[in-house]
Amino acid sequence: MHELEAWGEAFARAQSRPCVITLSGDLGTGKTTLARALCKGFGVFDANAVTSPTFAIVQEYAAEGFSVVHADLYRLNNDSELDALGWDEIVDGAQSLIVEWPERASRSWPNGAIHITLAYAGVSLVTRIVSVALT
Question: How would residue 125 be classed by pLDDT, with cut points 50, 70 and 90?
């Protein structure tokens, strides 16, 4: 298991619900890999099925007694597209919400939301820098 995946699983296990986690970073920095690891840590039954929901935009995965919602906002152009998804209801109702490309939404995040940014360290495509901040 790679360090990013191990970190993501442990990080998710330490979170209480409801929990909103946003994942930012350039293409290929590991957002979906981290989302899958977070899902494993949250106890998603079939975490291997977790893929980038770029085309579906929102996926929901079953865990013990709750579900994890995973959204990828990359393809969205404006907040009216969020409204069409019922975004406010998704954010308010999710026990665990993981959002890739959160900068595509101009809305504010709930208090206590966890913002994770992934970046490669210099020219190395092996070493990542993981930054964590709270709203």
Answer: low
φ, ψ of residue 81 to 5 degrees: the values are -70, -35
Q: How big is the chain by its Cα radius of gyration, in Å?
A: 14
Query: What are the angstrom distances between the C-alpha of 45 and each of 14, 34, 53, 87, 123?
Result: 18, 16, 18, 25, 36
- CATH number (domain holding residue 75): 3.40.50.300
DSSP code, position 108 = P
Q: pLDDT tens, 4-59?
A: 899 999 999 999 999 999 999 988 888 999 999 999 999 999 888 888 777 789 99
What letters, b where the CB count within 10 A reaches 16 and e where it falls short, cover 94-113? bebbbbbbbebbeeebeeeb
Number of domains in the chain: 1
Is residue 113 classed as helix, strand or coil in its secondary structure?
Answer: coil
Domain encompassing residue 120? 3-134
User: Residue 122: its pLDDT value, please?
Assistant: 72
Alpha-carbon span 76 to 74, nearest angstrom: 6
